[in-house]
Amino acid sequence: MPGPEELTSARARPTSSRPIPNDEGIPAWHQFTVSNADSRAMSSPKVLFVLTSHAKLGNTGKPTGWYLPEFAHPYDVLAPHTHITVASPDGGGAPLDPSSVDKSDPVSAKFLEHQESLWKHTEKLSGFVGRAKEFDAVFYVGGHGPMFDLATDEISHQVIREFFEAGRIVAAVCHGPAALVNAKLSDGSYLIDQCAVTGFSNAEEEAVNLTSAMPFQLEDELNKNSGGHYQRATEAWGPKVVVAKGGRLITGQNPASAKPVGEAIYEAIFGELIAQK
Which residues of 135-167 are buried (b: 16+ CB within 10 A; e: fewer)? Predict the structure, then answer.
């Protein structure tokens, strides 16, 4: 994984790649060596989370949206150490897929109970055009919704291009990579061209009986636009995280990959993952 110095020269950096616990055993996240006295120098790293605004599951008559554990678990990993902003194409309330609510998952249940304002009052994604240098990463939450809006949203594509070309981290999980599959860089090439990538597989889509409801098959499009470099987990529904582009492109395959994707973003920001207690 690249250290912070490879990600940006504008952010204050930790004094080492692995923060050293203080006398109370708390990692010294905020012991900075200031390398550039800009407005972000003494602040926490910033991550932009992006949710879908799409609420209808194709022609099924069923609701859809973003998927609870794919927001809750990365948030749980990153929130203690970063400042998180949440956006969506339309702004305002972003639809939670009711089928994703599983209160037997304590992380998701806690998030659902205490963090409702995060998805009820999202900022409009267009407001982040031209602001990539204010952030360290952008992360696209999964759920079937992104297949219908973020996959073809030109504003989203511009945000992704600006983040990546500014040296920031671009990440997505499950159907979140639908936002990346058609994104292009300034030279006209696909962001994912000739690099390893993952996302919800054809077999997983078939297993939930939603292949016919999708506007395209995510695995097929990721494989095509990456030049044949799509990867999947060896076991059905197993976690799979792929890190490419020097540590700045992070994708996860399915809901089981949500926490590992959060950890990979953390590692890319801070240089080395410190195990969560």
Answer: bbbbbbbbbbbbbbbbbebeebbbbbbbbbeeb
Q: Which amino acid belongs to residue 38? A: D
pLDDT of residue 239: 98
CA-CA distance, 173 to 165, in Å (whole number)? Answer: 21
Cα 25 to Cα 232: distance, rounded to the nearest angstrom:
38
Q: Calculate Rg over the CA atoms of the chain.
A: 18
Residue 57: CB atoms within 10 Å: 20
Tokens 């054809």 found at: 202
Quick check: 4 and 12 in contact, CB under 8 A? Answer: no
Helix (H) or strand (E) run with residue 202 in it:
helix 202-207
Phi and psi at residue 264, in whole multiples of 5°?
A: -65, -40
Write phi, then psi, for 123 (nearest 5 degrees): -85, 155
Residue 162, both tokens: 């600006």
154: which 2 tokens? Answer: 């030109």
Does residue 162 register a pLDDT over 90? yes
- CA-to-CA dists, residue 82 to 47, 57, 96, angstroms: 7, 33, 23
Which residues are within 8 A (CB) of 16 and not within 5 positions of it... i.e. 6 or more apart? Answer: none
Residue 168's pLDDT is what?
97
6 token code pair: 């490879």
Angle 245-268-244 from CA coordinates, rounded to 5°: 20
Per the listing, tokens 């990539």 go with: 132
State pTM to two decimals.
Answer: 0.85
Q: Is 66 helix (H, G, I), strand (E, B) or coil?
A: strand
**Burial category of 24 from C-beta neighbours within 10 Å (exposed 0-12, middle 13-18, buried 19 and up):** exposed
pLDDT tens digits, residue range 61-88? 999 999 999 999 999 999 999 999 999 9
DSSP assignment of 207-241 equals: HTT-GGGSSS-HHHHHHHHTTS-B---SSTT---E
